[in-house]
Amino acid sequence: MTTVRCADAFDRARAENRRALVGYLPAGFPSVDGAIGALRAMVEAGVDLVEVGLPYTDPVVDGPTIQAAAEIALRAGTRIRDVLATVEAVASTGTPTVVMTYWNPVLRYGVEAFTADLAAAGGAGLITPDLIPDEAAGWIAASDAAGLDRVFLVSPSSTDRRIAAAAAACRGFVYATSVMGVTGARARTSDLAPALVSRVRAASDLPVGVGLGVSNGDQAAAVAFYADAVIVGSAFVRRILDAGDEPAGIAAAAELARDLAGGVRRAPAPAG
After folding, report:
1. Active site includes 71?
2. Is 143 exposed, middle or buried (0-12, 13-18, 19+ CB in 10 A)?
């Protein structure tokens, strides 16, 4: 399968004079087929780049909402093969699709084997929240060989040196976590995020995506005025958790995607 890279989503958004919308769901939630259906519906509703979460038993960065979804997926027997099948189904829409994963499952699978299977599924790359560039030599080599994107995280507590190192190791975009703490939708977005984005831009020309906390179109619009992408995860999961059944959950996720997509379209894309 031909891989669509993360850069394609940002190029398309820039050509349309807007910012990009990134949407996340764990594979296997609410079921394997349900996750595929929801993600494809989110793409149809305006999501530009998809994060497929690899459910994990010890999600140190994830808040209670995503933890609950991961537990549902794991209890149902979701495995890495299901994650890759989800990636393939979503990537077949022509949408850049990355896997968000803690590093231990990749190590157990085998870094080169995981990289090869992700590339074969049409995946664009990995977001690795608990892996730092200093410890990523194997992944950097494997992703270079396969031509996959790699996305490391920076936070408001990151030093300028750490931001520069993370950004230099990234390919595709830089993931800026706008709040300190775990994931979760919030009533308001972080005041720390604009300064963090400015610090990343001082170190890199890569697009900067801001995640952690966005839950509606108004918040997406506010973030889109200073970031290249708005990243939303917990709000999608919450819509599905609160729905009465799987079809209702898919419809609710698509409705949220339309609201968020409208928000990111209120802010113009950066020049260049």
Report:
1. no
2. buried
Matching residue, tokens 């087929």: 33
**Span 183-235, pLDDT tens digits:** 444 444 457 899 999 999 999 999 999 987 899 999 999 999 999 999 999 99
- Of 48, 51, 88, 117, which residue is the catalytic one? 51
> What is the rounded CA–CA span in Å between residue 190 and residue 195?
10
* Domains annotated on the chain, with CATH: 6-154+170-187+207-238+246-264 (3.20.20.70)
From the list 8, 44, 48, 62, the catalytic residue is 62
- Dig out the tokens for 173 from the structure: 């975009």
CA atoms of 119 and 3, how far apart (whole Å): 7
% of the chain beyond a pLDDT of 90:
85
Residue 111's alpha-carbon distances to 50, 103, 168, 259, in angstroms, are 22, 9, 21, 37
The rounded distance, in Å, linking the Cα atoms of 194 and 227 is 8
Burial class (CB in 10 A: 0-12, 13-18, 19+), 161: exposed
- Concerning whether 62 is annotated as a catalytic residue, the answer is yes
